[in-house]
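pasting input
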Amino acid sequence: MKGTVSQEELKERLFVLEPQQFLELYRLYEKLGSTVDVKVEMQILRRRLVRMRPRRALTFTRLLCEPFEAFLVNGQPSDPGLVSRRMCLPVARLVRRHLSAAELVRFEQRIAALKPDDGAAKVLLGRDLWEVAAKILSDLRLSRPRTPGDPQPRIGLLIGCLQIGEAMVTLSRGIPEGRVDALDEGGAKLLVRLLRTLPQDRTGHARYLMALLARRLENPASVMAILQSDAGSLPAATRQDLTRMVRGEIEAGVEAGVAKLAAGGHGAPEVVRQAERLLDRLGQISASGAVGPKMQQAGSRIASRLGGMESLSDVAALEPSRQDQIRTLLSVEQSAGLAHAETYRELESEIGNVIRLGARIDRLGVDNPLRAREVALRNQIATRQAALLSSLPQVPDEPGARASARAGLYGLVRMVEMLDGSNAAETLRCEGDRILAG
Amino acid sequence: MSATLKQVPGAKGEAAGNARRPLPASRPPGTNRSHHEPATFLQRGTVVPFTTSSLAQSRVRLDDRGRQEVILPGFSGGKGVYITAWSSLPDITSPSVHDRALIETIAQQRVISPPDVRRCWAELATTGIGGQALAEKAREELAHAAEVRVATRIMLLLDCIRRSGGKVGPELMARLGHPDGEQQAKALLAGTARRIDCDVATIDAHIGELAALLGTLGLRSLPQPGRLRDLHVRLQEFSHAIGNWSRTTVSESAPVGHFAAMSSEHSAAIAGRAIAQVDALLADSLKLISNREAGKKSLRTELLRIAWLLDGWDYVLRVWADVVAERTAVDVAIAEIGRIVPIVPASEVQDASAHKSVELFRQYRSRVGHSEDWLSGDPDEADPAGPGPGNRDTRA
């Protein structure tokens, strides 16, 4: 057995340890310090940690930050709707400094006396703290002259979240951990209940609930459908406002992503991945209502960025030494496909990406430069197909040559299937096999 | 569409006597339905690695007249399984060209066991008909098996030499991959030949045959395990992982996760015993070689049993890997795992753990979903949206 575990193995075996062993391992890592490797590995471990929701000792800072936890990011946030995790301690210090000594002692005592599994008591305690903290931060913001470097929107976000802290925490807990596509029935009911019970003077704060959903859900636009269908008990004007808020949150995220994509500096795989994600997001907005001019423009920018790329193939080159090894280990029939592998896999990748991304652009109804590329690819495959079929009758009757010809044919069959569907591909396969059989 | 499908729901009592016979190939609509509760591996069939998503985890097997048929789990979103003739598969669905070619190959070669189906798939996939990524995967798998065979052969050769009193120095060890080293090693086999009263060429050929059999498993002592040994390790890990998940989650899918954990633990435990059996046979290579055909037969039987026991699990592990990498929502993945989780047929377990298989099948049947009868698992007949009872058995 090996003495060390690679980061890949750590990812793969993340769930293998018993929960208690896992927590012990995590605590060990916490004690190891902050080298780059330890940090990377801790990030991997956190993927399980967030799903386990282990009982962590409740502290003043943790309780204070719970309403805006969804917006905390490691490192410098690129988006004004996000807050650096490093702000937590200074904010907590600030609040503690402005609490009276008696208030501080009372909070500390209540936190220490809290039973770990008493969620209701925690929210009650939190409600008191969040209200006081929101007032302190709000007063401080008003008393300080604004300077150009002030992180005003971020402070505003923190104050807003704290002012409706109970609703924020309740909604956050109502969404399952990990990847969640859309709110389920229970989640939708919870959202509507929270929206209906927001204090009269805080109805505008619903935007923070919407921002939380935009951050936590894979398809935040699904919230718009909920607002249209399930939120019948809310006034129509409120529903419209809320829909606008969600749309605003999603649009802000898309615009930031498009700006990053347009800035360039990434390789094809990264651009394809990012573009696909953004197009998906735009598709979700489009499916939930009309796409506004801003999003139309964002769609056009993504399309033109993709259209301007020389190739959309996102596969790395094969390792020549491994291919040589495989040739020596396998029979000529089994390794025949290697003769075409490099060319075909690039072509396949290009075709796959052009079709996938092209379909997403089409759905947005903007100019699609990938259509012309698809036509060019179709012509290229047709030319290859004609050349191959005419060469098949001349294939020598020896295993290696026939296997290579068959691999050449079947590789093309696959690409025809991608472009024209399985019936066209099956026709080509049958024709090719017939010629090869003599 | 000419194909006739029969549906075997996942929930309704079946007489124990019937469970041991293969299900009949066709059944008129509305007649007695029974569970798909295979008693043997042959009845359970072998998973075919199709690329069309609606055919995922379909199994090929022989019907009672010796014709190939296919078992489709949860076809069209149903809970039970559908069974139809193998040759009619292209008529009832729109398979990819890869799948059409695989259907043809399996029919032509009339294969039904996991190693044979896997070989058919790998050889076809190397042509690139399922895409270059799949071709690369198939070539890697075949190359890995070849590497394991080479390493196994060398290890068996060395073990034979050592057991018959020969010495293998570090120089020879370093040259074992080269022709001159091979020659030297064969020369040292003379001692083995004398000891078991056989000629060197026969021993060498026999070692080669044993190594060829072991390509998918390999020896315990090899740094790179064979595919099945690796799959067994990963299955054990999966069992722990999904068990932990189901114990700590608040998700409604927790019972399905728990069921998958129990089933994987059961399969892994029995496969572990079979692997230990192989390792025990290989522990004394001289004895294995001197037994010749009997030794080879025992080895082949155990290896086939391991392949059957682990059949179908690699797809489940891939689905779980997608959860761990956050490519799939956990509830979606657990639903898919619950649909296709393999259970060891009761008649294939000889010891006391056979009752575990029975228990697992019972649990599998008793998972009741939305608008399903809690006793039978059939769609609630009072549900106007659900299909009526008479039109579910046969679909044309």
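fyi The beta strands of chain A are 72-73, 83-84.
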